[in-house]
Amino acid sequence: MYLTIAPYLGLIATAWMIVGVAIAGKRYPNYSHVNQFCSELGASGSPTEKLSPRINNFPLSMLFVAFGWFILQQPEVSTLLVIIGWSIVAHGVGTLVAGVFPMDADPYIEKPSTRCQVHTFAGVVMLFSLIIAMLIAPFASDFTYTFKLFSILCLVAHLYFTFSLANAYQNRQKIGLHQRLSYGAQLIWLSGLSVEFVV
Hints:
By secondary structure, this protein is an all-alpha fold. The protein has helices at about 1-5, 10-25, 50-70, 80-100, 115-135, 145-170, 175-199. It has one domain (about 1-199). The protein contains seven helices and no strands. Keywords: Membrane, Transmembrane, Transmembrane helix.
């Protein structure tokens, strides 16, 4: 059963993320996907503080870890593919920790709580784990030329929107939109990685 579903887990995780955030957002009065972080759905004191990690972080962490583990079990796996597999596992662990430790309600708070600091650190792990995976994918002999090019395009898009997110955060405008575009580029790459193992 696991081996049948495992190649599709990157695609499943992407779809799950979209649906889960949409569901939680519906249950958060006046929540704005354009102007608020995804993590605000599970922030301390938010209307969906308990719901969001239950339908997003916790199941997603299992999907990421399971997909990374599937990659690690490939026959004649190269060193670079091993790094990619462990990077996706790390992304899953970071997703879990980010769900257990919520951010503060105010993303601009001057003195964040300890839980928020742990949440932020987990977010950094999530961010850089997939950047590493995307960065080395074009050099892995395990992949097709098409996927290598796809990886480069997704990495460029992700970095562009990550910088635009930093500017949006400073300007306090449309941070939710830029975050979704930034993380979306990583999830699209993860979906493409699934397709690479399916076809």
